[in-house]
Amino acid sequence: DIQMTQSPSSLSASVGDRVTITCRASQSISNYLYWYQQKPGKAPKLLIYAASSLQSGVPSRFSGSGSGTDFTLTISSLQPEDFATYFCQQSYSTPMYTFGQGTKLEIK
Amino acid sequence: QVQLQQWGAGLLKASETLSLTCAVYGGSFSGSYWSWIRQPPGKGLEWLGGINHSGSTNYNPSLKSRVTISVDTSKNQFSLKLSSVTAADTAVYYCAKVAVVGTVYFYYYMDVWGEGTTVTVSS
Fold it and tell me: Residues of B48-73 as b/e, b for ≥16 C-beta within 10 angstroms?
């Protein structure tokens, strides 16, 4: 199984801050990496696919980078609606998919 | 625009079988791959398995002996059964559509989700 490890598990930040979340794969997954945002009581929403492609309708302050085993999600200037939990997912081992454990982004 | 509506029993006793169904509205049922994902309270997401319109399935090896996913193309529905549940199976269960993008390399992700069903297993 490919394991996905996110860091940090939680993060406190202020509106306007630049924030980076990291996801590491247990083996190389090329760029088969995706980022989701989940708000309490809601299903996850796709933000980034193929490691760095922005899903339609997602604000440009979100960006993704990385390849191989190390990936990052960056929010350039936090907005109040960005406080949520973020998950990474790999599809290198399709049709078996695995997710990271999540990073909870909280207001400082 | 594809929408997913899911339902099923929310309270089970240990050793019973969990049963959930997801109905697909809009879009192409036969042209897509469908998955079940769960999220224990306060924890991350776990992919359980998936199915296409012809009934070809894939399961998470960690649950393979207990999971069955089936499809009813006449109703545009797919279903999940998880046998011999325990308290560890308490979670929010989501159905989801798997999107595919790409021409040479193909990228698979969940682009449409159901609203989630909270399943609690009591001992």
Answer: bbbbbbeeebbbbeebeebbbbebee
Strands A85-90, A103-107: pairing kind: antiparallel
DSSP A46-79: EEEETTTEEPTT--TTEEEEEETTEEEEEESS--
The verdict on A97 touching B (C-beta cutoff 8 Å) is yes
Write out pLDDT tens, residues A12-67: 999 999 999 999 999 999 999 999 999 999 999 999 999 999 999 999 999 999 99
Nearest C-alpha in B relative to A29: B107
Rounded to the nearest angstrom, the minimum Cα separation between B55 and chain A is 14
The pair of structure tokens assigned to A66 is: 């990385």
- Rounded to 5 degrees, φ, ψ at A81 are -80, -5
Residue B50: strand, helix, or coil: strand
Short-list A103, A36, A92, A38, CA closest to A64:
A36
Predicted confidence (pLDDT) per residue in A65-75, tens digit:
999 999 999 99
